[in-house]
């Protein structure tokens, strides 16, 4: 055993003896500094796409203090415009690309960098970090939209997700917020290596700007700084959702992973079965028939039958019956197509006009941590380690230090 590993082991034993925190102490809980190793915590850069602000419409924009526009298409990002004295105007597109008020950038990728840490407003909301503005063009070269994203340190991003994903103003939810911070941090780092990028909506994680920060969320970040979930020498895909409806799903069976992952095999959570009651959604005949036409199984949809359910009633695979053919598809694809809260369907009532009423339990895809259950456990006195162990059984809780840099995918 090398000296560093030996020192790590001795310190860990002492830590367990002093705190006696049970079965998760082999995965240390740290705050501010890593207590179990001399290696510094990493706080890598994250870039998140601002989906609701991207597009072709002008966006009201304000900058306080000194700022500059950098050319994102060239190495070292040379300065295109050294702004000063603030800015107030619209960000929009013209034939040359992004334009800030009267200033044309003449570049397909620019970066707006402010001197102050909190100085950028987009559509009246305050955001941290550097703003990346990328131009999307047709094959003909015509500019059609701007894609906006923010570049910032990981911990600044995580607090925006905690505020966007959890009720951070309630009493007794600190441990749930801590669990959410760790899951969000892990998910973001794992997605960091994706070519599609990290979105600021429910497709990935809801991220909110500086206007929404709360002291409770800040406390959760401080209490878990740098902690991530690890499985099999890699970052765990730390999925989470609003309500599991009685039990979480197996990631492989639901199509969220390509192989069996013990921390994501699903877990019983019976208290979540009906905390918000049975949901109900009415889907029009036009939308249902549109499914038949999309999958080329006819002009109208005759019915939906179940091929496979999980132990908690979640439809894993369904068969669409058209007037000509049929199509089998994953339950999650049907949920996305019909915008259903979940696939834990208990009833489909067909109406005389061809529409259908879908009724079921749960909210979300059901993989990983159930946010409703996490809040319940937190209010019941469970520490965040137990919450994570319940929803990601067997995953290791580790501090992201320079010694674990190999876990970190490169920024695309």
Largest sheet: 7 strands, mixed
| Mean model confidence by pLDDT | 88
**Alpha-carbon Rg, integer:** 24 Å
What fraction of the residues are assigned to beta strands by DSSP? 25-35%
For the biggest β-sheet, the strand order reads 4-3-8-11-12-1-13
Q: Could you list the spans in which at least 5 consecutive residues all have pLDDT below 50?
A: 1-36
- Estimated helix fraction: 10-25%
Total strand segments: 24
Structural class: alpha+beta
* Measured distance between first and last alpha carbons: 36 Å
Count, helices: 8
Backbone shape: globular
Can you describe this structure?
This protein has 412 residues and is an alpha+beta fold. A hairpin with a 2-residue loop joins strand 9 (120-122) and strand 10. The chain has helices spanning 3-19, 154-165, 174-191, 215-224, 285-294, 331-338, 371-379, 384-391; strands spanning 45-49, 59-63, 67-71, 79-81, 87-94, 97-100, 103-104, 109-114, 120-122, 125-127, 130-137, 143-153, 198-199, 227-231, 234-235, 240-241, 279-283, 301-309, 315-322, 326-330, 344-350, 356-361, 369-370, 396-399. Residues 1-36 have low confidence and may be disordered. It contains eight helices and 24 strands. Helix 2 (154-165) packs across helix 4 (215-224) and helix 3 (174-191) packs across helix 4. The strands form six sheets. A seven-stranded mixed sheet has the order 4-3-8-11-12-1-13. Helix content is 22%, strand content 29%. The longest helix has 18 residues, at 174-191.
């Amino acid at each position: 055993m090398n000296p560093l590993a030996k020192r790590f082991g001795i310190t860990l034993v002492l830590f367990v003896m002093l705190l006696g925190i049970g079965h998760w102490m082999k995965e240390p809980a740290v705050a501010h500094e890593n207590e179990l190793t001399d290696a510094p915590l990493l706080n890598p850069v994250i870039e998140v796409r601002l989906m609701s602000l991207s597009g072709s419409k002008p966006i009201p924009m304000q900058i306080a203090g000194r700022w500059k526009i950098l050319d994102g298409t060239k190495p070292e990002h040379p300065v295109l415009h050294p702004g000063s004295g603030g800015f107030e105007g619209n960000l929009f597109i013209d034939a040359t690309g992004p334009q800030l008020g009267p200033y044309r950038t003449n570049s397909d990728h620019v970066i707006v960098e402010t001197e102050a840490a909190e100085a950028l407003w987009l559509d009246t909301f305050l955001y941290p970090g550097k703003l990346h503005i990328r131009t999307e063009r047709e094959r003909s070269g015509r500019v059609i939209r701007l894609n906006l994203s923010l570049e910032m340190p990981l911990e600044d991003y995580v607090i925006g997700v905690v505020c966007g994903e959890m009720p951070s103003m309630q009493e007794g939810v600190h441990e749930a917020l801590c669990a959410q911070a760790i899951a969000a941090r892990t998910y973001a780092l794992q997605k960091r290596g994706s070519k599609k990028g990290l979105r600021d909506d429910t497709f990935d994680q809801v991220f909110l700007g500086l206007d929404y920060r709360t002291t409770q969320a800040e406390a959760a970040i401080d209490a878990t700084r740098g902690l991530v979930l690890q499985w099999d020498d890699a970052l765990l895909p730390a999925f989470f959702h609003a309500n599991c409806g009685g039990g979480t799903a197996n990631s492989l069976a639901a199509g969220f992973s390509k192989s069996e992952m013990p921390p994501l095999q699903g877990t019983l959570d019976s208290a979540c079965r009906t905390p918000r009651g049975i949901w109900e959604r009415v889907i029009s005949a036009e939308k249902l028939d549109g499914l038949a036409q999309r999958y080329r199984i006819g002009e109208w949809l005759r019915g939906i039958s179940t091929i496979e359910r999980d132990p908690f009633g979640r439809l894993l695979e369904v068969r669409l019956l058209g007037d000509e053919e049929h199509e089998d598809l994953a339950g999650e694809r049907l949920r996305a197509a019909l915008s259903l809260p979940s696939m834990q369907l208990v009833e489909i009532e067909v109406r005389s006009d061809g529409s259908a009423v879908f009724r079921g339990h749960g909210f979300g895809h059901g993989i990983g941590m159930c946010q409703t259950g996490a809040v319940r456990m937190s209010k019941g006195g469970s520490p965040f380690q137990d919450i994570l162990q319940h929803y990601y059984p067997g995953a290791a809780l580790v501090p992201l230090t320079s010694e674990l840099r190999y876990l970190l995918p490169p920024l695309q």
